[in-house]
Write a structure and sequence with these properties.
Blueprint: H1 2-19, H2 26-81, H3 85-160, H4 163-218
Helix pairs in contact: 1-2, 1-3, 2-3
């Protein structure tokens, strides 16, 4: 289990950056790696808890055996004081058995305690490595999202200057130029028509002047 976690840590450290250049979705892969690490930690926690329970069980049995040794010792002394050597002998024999059991349990307890300490240390290392990888994962996810955003923006910007868009702008520009030309033509025609009307108005004004002069001549008012 711990070897597998070490392998996972190596994969995360050496391959996550490379995934950014592959077809795999790095964000999904990062999350998957973290889920596998979390599963490894839960498995390790269960193993440590089981080992600690075994350690406590051995400790309890060891303490019980020691108490029996002390109890048989006291009982032997009581029997001697009572003058019952046979009973004292039986107590001492049972004391010897419990003493041997206590020695065996002490060895097992010490070994279990050492194993528990070792497993606790490894579990702490796994959790530290997990948090380190989690920080790295968050950084890589941010980089991946940033790269996706930049790619999307770049593609959008490249589309803005594409041939189809450019041709569309050129068509609109031609239409605007056409509208402007039509407006200028209509202004020229209006100016031309106004000049013609002015000339006719002037001509009509001259006719009135002539008539006035003729009228004055007839009336002898010149």
């Amino acid at each position: 289990m711990f070897k597998f976690f070490k392998r996972m840590k190596t994969v995360v450290e050496s391959e996550l950056n490379a995934m950014l250049d592959k077809a795999e979705d790095p964000v999904k892969m990062l999350d998957q790696f973290m889920r596998e690490m979390e599963a490894d930690i839960r498995e390790a926690e269960a193993a440590v808890a089981k080992q600690i329970a075994n350690e406590k069980m051995l400790e309890r049995k060891y303490e019980d055996a020691k108490k029996m040794v002390e109890k048989r010792q006291q009982q032997a002394m009581t029997a001697v004081e009572a003058g019952n050597d046979d009973l004292a002998k039986r107590a001492l024999e049972d004391k010897k058995i419990h003493s041997q059991t206590a020695d065996t349990l002490k060895e097992s307890f010490d070994r279990a305690k050492l194993d528990s300490t070792t497993l606790r240390k490894k579990l702490d290392e796994m959790k530290a490595e997990y948090h380190e990888m989690k920080l790295k994962k968050d950084t890589l996810k941010a980089r991946a999202e940033s790269a996706k955003t930049r790619t999307k923006i770049n593609r959008t910007m490249s589309g803005i200057g594409g041939d189809e868009s450019r041709r569309g702008f050129e068509r609109m520009e031609e239409k605007v130029l056409q509208y402007e030309a039509e407006a200028e033509t209509s202004e020229d025609m209006r100016s031309s028509n106004r000049s013609l009307d002015d000339e006719f108005a002037a001509l009509e004004k001259n006719d009135v002047d002539d008539e006035l002069a003729a009228l004055k001549r007839e009336m002898g008012k010149e």
